[in-house]
Design goal:
mainly alpha
């Protein structure tokens, strides 16, 4: 969905749907800030138009975000394996009970 950023005259639901459908994390954050400013200025109404589409099951994500998440998970798994291997290969002496 290539919706524009929230603008004056949008309903709160319409602004939220635009944000939820935006896959770019930076734009999503900028649009959230813009919607908050429009709300504070009274430029977004609470009234629903009734024409809004239903929200997505999950917020849109860019391919870059999923690659970053996979990379982070891979690094976490590598660290866990490294620590486990290090623990197996290193004898760790227990401290005497106090």
């Amino acid at each position: 969905m290539d919706a524009p950023a929230p603008v004056p005259g949008d309903t709160l639901v319409a602004a939220a749907l635009k944000i939820l459908h935006q896959p770019d994390a930076l734009l999503k954050a900028q649009w959230t800030e813009a919607a908050a400013q429009l709300w504070a200025a009274g430029d977004i109404s609470v009234t629903r138009s009734g024409a809004e589409a239903p929200p997505p099951d999950t917020p849109a994500r860019s391919d870059k975000a999923s690659v970053a998440v996979r990379r982070k998970n891979n690094l976490r798994q590598l660290r866990t394996r490294f620590v486990a291997q290090l623990a197996r290969e290193t004898s760790i002496q227990k401290l005497p009970a106090a």
